[in-house]
Amino acid sequence: SQLENLQPEIKGLAQRLRYEVSVRGKQLGWSERVARLQFQRNLRRVVSELYVRDNCHPVKATLLVWVQVPLWVCVSLALRNCSVGASGSHLQEQFSSGGTLWFPDLTAPDSTWILPVSLGLVNLLIVEV
Fold first, then answer.
1. Per the database entry, which stretches of residues form a coiled coil (predicted)?
2. For the segment 22-35, what is each residue's pLDDT rounded down to a tens digit?
3. Contact call for residues 83 and 95 (beta carbons, < 8 A)
4. Exposure of 18 in the CB half-sphere (CA atoms within 13 A)
5. Which strand (E) or helix (H) includes residue 25?
6. Which of 34, 69, 104, 123 is close enough to 99 for a disulfide, judged by CB 3.0 to 4.6 Å?
């Protein structure tokens, strides 16, 4: 990912910044604590600039998870509630006769595991792409 590609550049900039802060700290007589704080503050600024430059802030990577997981849970629960609803309901009758190919009854578990495995592979493909 873009974030991983930035790591060598961040490491190089951190080494250069550490050297510059130590030289500047010796010139101005900073204590070790002040030099460390200056380094951390400047490193955060440099890393933030890199994230903006390459448009790859770490929060963007986790944002998809925070949206996708609750959505997936809600859809799964809604489908489960529709398929195991009160017997004799109009919706359950439609689910029991609305399938195709090897799954004619959508309320019965898929004994061939074709649908769950293919869904898992498609999700893996989406995540990897």
1. none
2. 888 888 888 989 99
3. yes
4. 6
5. helix 2-28
6. 104
